Amino acid sequence: MDNQVKIFDTTLRDGEQALPASLTVKEKLQIALALERLGVDIIEAGFPVSSPGDFQSVQTIAREVKNATVCGLSRAMAKDIDACGEALRVAERFRIHTFIATSSIHVDSKLRKSNDEVVDMAVAAIKHAAKYTNDIEFSCEDAGRTHIDYLCRMVEAAINAGATTVNIPDTVGYTTPSEFGGIIHNLFNRVPNIDKAIISVHCHNDLGLAVANSLAAVENGARQVECTINGIGERAGNASLEEIAMILKTREQLLGLQTNIQSSEISRTSKLVSQLCNMPVQANKAIVGANAFSHSSGIHQDGVLKAQNTYEIMTPESVGINKNNLNLTSRSGRHVIKHRMHELGYQDTDFDLDKLYQSFLKLADKKGQVFDYDLEALVFFDQTRQDE
Ligand code: KIV
Ligand code: ZN
Question: The whole model's pTM is what?
Fold first, then answer.
């Protein structure tokens, strides 16, 4: 089996649809170009039938992006697919993504159709999309809660109809990693034509398991992961692209899988999305949070000064951050104070480390974090006292 995992970014579709205010066409293009630089394989640019603004954004992105496949979403309806085909035809490479729900909860209560009718609708939609392109993705919405027999039947029918990627979404973030991995495993064992398509996954984060579930899926043969920058998306969001990319990179020896992501672009892209979407990133968010490469405990600070890999499993540079950050607090030891003084340009003879450390601890107990300007003020006061 191929060990390349395709990264399908849906920041501009699933991510954007969850924002309180829509992005402008210009802002979406800025994000799309950043995603192209980041090396994503497929950019889901929007849902063209949903509004004239979305149509225009998808068309603009399709025209400007050259190094990624541009994709548009459509329900399993001819008018949606036509809008996608129309918006995307200016692209160098494009994909039409069509979907229909497959769980009995959705089929009975939302679609109010029989299972047979839903299979027919999916097949008709895929055949309609084939008039525009041979790059067709089909999603079984709410696959995580779909009976496995029906899911197998739908996947087989979608591939026979011409879907080249079949996506298995955990739409409501309900499954657990072993359960979701099991669904993918079952599909590979039971669907006879499964090797004719790429199996994709699209996991939501309602129970905080979107990334773990996506990982379980690739361990069971999925070769496309749908995700968003900073994990933005409906409700609790989607699997976070930066986490997926850095898991596969950091644990490449264990997993034997690769992506095309240029990881040094991660921090820049995360900041851009956070700013334009007005969605702050929590400080302790893996990979891109302000504290992801900060060390506070004296033991950890001493460790990373001796050897960075004592407490860092990836370098800050690998995700585009200049260097790690050692917070100066009452837990910091003498070693880090001396190191910071050297970074600030002082020689050992410019300060008395014992005295400075005692004054530092007093200040840290009072104010929590001590900043560089505090440290310099402490040295200045120590010297002034000495001179008097
Ligand atoms: O969560 C979901 O099921 C979706 C589909 C449209 C892929 O976003
Ligand atoms: Zn979704």
Answer: 0.96
- Cα–Cα distance list, 260 to 25, 64, 240, 254 (Å): 26, 20, 16, 18
For the CA of 73, the nearest atom of ligand 1? 6
DSSP string, 142-192: TGGGS-HHHHHHHHHHHHHHT-SEEEEEETTS---HHHHHHHHHHHHHH-T
Our answer on whether the CB atom of 15 is closer than 6 Å to any ligand 1 atom is no
- Closest atom, ligand 1, to C-alpha of 143: 3
Q: Do 241 and 22 contact (CB within 8 A), yes or no?
A: no
CB-CB contact of 109 with 134 (8 Å):
no
pLDDT value for 231: 98
Would you say the CB of residue 14 lies under 6 angstroms from ligand 1?
yes
Q: What is the mean pLDDT of residues 290-308?
A: 96
Ligand 2 center to residue 191 CA distance, Å?
Answer: 24
Ligand 1, residue 238: give the atom nearest the CA: 1
Tell me the per-residue pLDDT of 88-136, one tens digit each, with 9 for 90 and over: 999 999 999 999 999 999 999 999 999 999 999 999 999 999 999 999 9
Q: Compute, in angstroms, the gap from residue 234 CA to the centroid of ligand 2.
A: 7
